[in-house]
Structures are given as structure tokens and as C-alpha cells.
Amino acid sequence: MRLILLGVLILHVIILILLIVSTAASAWSVADNSAKDLWYKCSTNNGGYRCQPSSNEDWIQAVQALMILSVLFCFFSLIAFLYQLFRLVKGGRFFFTAIFQILASVFVMCGAIIYTVMRPDDGTHTNFGYAYVLAWVAFPLCLISGLIYIVLRKKE
Amino acid sequence: MLTFLALTSVALLGIVPEQSQAIAIYTGWERHALVGSDIRLSCSFFSWRWTSEDVTFSWTYRPDGSRDSISIFHYTGGAAYVDNKGPFRDRLEFVGNPGRRDGSILLKNLELNDNGTFTCDAKNPPDIVGRPSSVRLLVFEKVPIQAGVITGAIIGVVLGLLVLIVVIYYLMRFLVARRVFSLSVSKHGKKKKEGSQQRQLWTPPPLTCYPLP
Hints:
Distance between the termini of chain B: 143 Å
Radius of gyration of chain B: 42 Å
Structural class of chain B: alpha+beta
Number of helices of chain B: 2
Oligomer: heterodimer
Pfam family, one (chain A): PMP22_Claudin
Shape of chain A: elongated
Transmembrane segments (chain A): 62-83, 95-118, 130-152
Strand order of the largest sheet of chain B: 2-12-10-5-6-7
Strand content of chain A: 5-15%
Family (chain A): Belongs to the PMP-22/EMP/MP20 family.
Largest sheet of chain A: 5 strands, antiparallel
Signal peptide (chain A): 1-27
Radius of gyration of chain A: 18 Å
Keywords (chain A): Membrane, Signal, Transmembrane, Transmembrane helix
Number of strands of chain B: 12
Structural class of chain A: alpha+beta
């Protein structure tokens, strides 16, 4: 039992780290020498590294909001898990933890979908960057973690 | 002391006439407008002299990226002369009140090419020394959204909903607990009363002894 709880806790922390990196790193789209979205457009030309703020369109702001909300909800669910670990009655389920974790996964999914659909087609060999991939990896992990919390019961 | 006061007052009297010869012109700093809309560019001035009958207003326009300005409006001798050949022909109207030192103009049906700097120069004879003031016009196709407005709105709404749901949940629990608590107190009281009544009603029957036959 202790081992299961430890494993679930480690998974939760890994998901939180993935979400934070995906939100904070400005590398959702990469081109030859530049990386952009969600926050900055940075490029290296001729030895200089220049960054400017990314465009203020509504969909980018929506993706920013959804990613920040998913980080917040994952963090709240971690706190709820630690709280319920010590305060839950025996045989009770980790209800609040599961709700927050599933909401976090829904937010990541919405953010990633909006970014995929609304990304402008520049045509100059722009690929998806590592932050985008991390967001898509974090979504199923977060969902599975939430479902584990629904199934998990506190025994003694 | 008296000589000091006299000297300062003479100095002040010497300075003030210099100031009263300068006219101060006020326009906005920057104006934003949408394509196709109208905009009023205001211009007013401050002068120590009374508004004279020979007051003049003139507006000049310098497009963005160009070094030449073109004159588009002039008011003099009580009559307003609007642009009838330049970029603003049929789109310019004088809406000011020179008697009240207001020399504002109205630009109608703005286009994207109207981006530029508009300079207002006013003269109130004999008060003619002054600096013209400029207002920059920016014409947008669509009103741009500032960075972070939508982000903050979405985050605020979701967190607000979360707080609201938590508050309502705890409020419901608190209210239901209070009602349940009061119910059990009255039930408990009734039970106690019935119990005591029954005790009073039930009296043990008196013991009678029957002698053995």
C-alpha cells in the first residue's frame, strides 16, 4: 500500500513538472533558428539572440490561460492529495484530488487542441517544439492519474 | 527688507510681460480610431490677452514616413478654409469655436493612409510667439487586444467559479448541519419529557401481603 501511494505521488510530481516546463518554455513552434509561443518569439541571427513578445491574438491568450490553469489545478490536486492522505476516513476515496486532476487534464487538452488548430501556416519549415510535445504527453498521464485517484481507497 | 521686496517685485513685473507674450497651444498626444470612423482633433490655446478678432488657427498634416507637411485647414478673419485639393478634400469639417479659443476639426471616414501627425498652430495677435502642438493619429482595422487581457479574464473567471463552488459547498454543509442539530435537540427534549411523564404515571403497584391459609 505504501509503495502504491509513493508511486502515485511520484507520478503526480512528474506530471506537475511536465506541465510547468511546457507552460514556461517558449518553444511550442520551432523553425530553423527560432522558437516561439507561448510567450516570446526568440531567434538567433548571425550570432545575436533576439526575443520579442509573441502576438497578442485571442487564441494565444486562451492557450496561455488554459495552460496556467492546468498547472494551478495540478498543484491544488497535489495539496488535496497530501491533505486527504492524513485526514481521510478509512475506506474513503480521494475525491477532491481526482476532481482537480481530471480538470487539469481537461485544461491541458483544450489548450493543446486550440494551439494545434489555430497555429498559422507559415510554410517556412516550422515544426512543433518540445513544449508542445510535453503538453500532449502530460494530458494522458494527468487523466490516468486522476482515474487512479478515483479508484484508490484509503486502507490501513 | 523693503528694498529687497521692491527689487523682487520689479523683477517679477519684468518677467510677467515676457510670459504674457507667449501663447500655449494644447492638442492631444495620440489618437486611435477605426477605419471608416470619424474623429475630432481638438486644439485650444491659452493666452494672457483677450481673444482678438484676428485670431487664426491652422492645421498641417504630415503622413507617417514622409518629411513634408501639407496645410489642410486655416481659419482667419472670421472664416474657415478647409482642404479642397489635398488628401482630406470633402472629409474635413471645422467644429471649433474661435470665440472660445477652440480650433477643433472633424475628420470623416478615416482611411489607413491617414496615419500621420497633425499640427495645430494658433495665433492671437498681438500674442503670436508660441510653439505649435502636434497630435499623432493611428488608424486601425480592428481594435487590437492588449496582451494578457483575455488570459487574465479566463483565469479569473475559472478561479472565481472554483471559490464560489467551494463556498457554496461549505455553506450548504453548515446550514444542513444546523437544521439537523436543532431537530435532534427537540426530539431529544420530547423523548426526555415523555420518559419523565411515563415515570410519573407508572407507579409501582402497592405490595399486599396475603396470609397463608
